[in-house]
Amino acid sequence: MKASAFSPGHITGFFVIKDRHRDVRKKGSLGAGFCLSKGAVTTVNIRKSGKQKIDIFLNNKKSISNVTRYVAKKIIGEKKYHVVVKSTLQLPVSQGFGMSCAGALSTGIAINRALKLNLSFNKIVEIVHESEIKNKTGLGDVVAESVGGMEIRVKEGLPPYGRLRKIKGNHDVVLCILGKGMKTKTVLSNPEQRKKINRYGVMCMKEMINKPTIENFFHLSYDFALKTGLANKKIIKAIEEANKYGTSSQAMLGNSVFAVGNTKKLVKTLKNFGKVYVCRIGGKARVL
């Protein structure tokens, strides 16, 4: 039994942590961001076995991958299958591109198709959301990745509790990796950092809702990166240089920059700071 699926990556520009609910379906984040045409492509091979075994490979390397493993186990239950998950991540992990979520979501979709389980798409999204929350790897990525495009998350959690507003945006995006990744779990577990994120995230949300444009999104995102102290000197320098040819900010939560504008000049400029990727705003989770 075999199936493949795709899930887009996702960038958050600013956010508010909302993880105090008892019900995991109501936990999440407020914020704004957009999905990417690059993400995770996953193929699963499943066969009956004498005992349950799940092997996960990320970019051809065997991985523990707790987020994806949780999703696989939740979907197959107690059934004795040998599940081999092979995910190709088209962007780096721990850089604010939603790759752990994309890997898990594409895995869930592929297993559901391979086993002909007929789980609803919303149920798969719920399982991935639960895994992200429990593993402290994200708060709002799967909700955004499930709808694609550009969004404002105006109410935390999964539908019908959570709510999204879509924004028009169809641009090429230049991404730049400036150094080692940032662990979401570390940031979300820091009380002082949480206070700053929520204080400035609430301000950004109010301004974004009043003026829901991509230009305002970039402006607020950069303001958020500066005021929370998440942007280091190298990130600030890269953004200042990129802003000569467009508009840019820091991906949350990553040691990375994203920009739109004159794509050729942005690529040339940002190559001075690190590895560069080019993709588009868009992408939606689907069976391949």
Helix content: 25-40%
CATH domain class of the largest domain: Alpha Beta
Query: How many E-type strands?
Result: 12
CATH architecture of the largest domain: 2-Layer Sandwich
Task: Please name the CATH topology of the largest domain.
Answer: Ribosomal Protein S5, domain 2
Provide the number of structural domains: 2
Please explain how this structure is put together:
With 288 residues, the protein is an alpha+beta fold. The protein is built from nine helices and twelve strands. The chain folds into two domains: 164 residues, Ribosomal Protein S5, domain 2 (2-Layer Sandwich); 112 residues, Alpha-Beta Plaits (2-Layer Sandwich), CATH 3.30.70. Helix 6 runs antiparallel to helix 7. It is globular and about 60 Å long.
Please sum up the structure shown.
With 288 residues, the chain is an alpha+beta fold. The protein contains nine helices and twelve strands.
Keywords:
288 residues; alpha+beta; Ribosomal Protein S5, domain 2; Alpha-Beta Plaits; 4-stranded antiparallel sheet; globular
Helix-strand layout with pairing:
Elements: E1 2-18, E2 28-48, E3 53-58, E4 61-63, H1 66-76, E5 81-89, H2 99-114, H3 121-135, H4 141-147, E6 150-155, E7 163-167, E8 172-177, H5 184-188, H6 191-210, H7 214-227, H8 233-242, E9 246-250, E10 256-261, H9 263-270, E11 275-280, E12 286-287
Parallel strand pairs: 3-5
Antiparallel strand pairs: 1-2, 1-12, 2-5, 2-6, 3-4, 6-7, 8-10, 8-11, 9-10
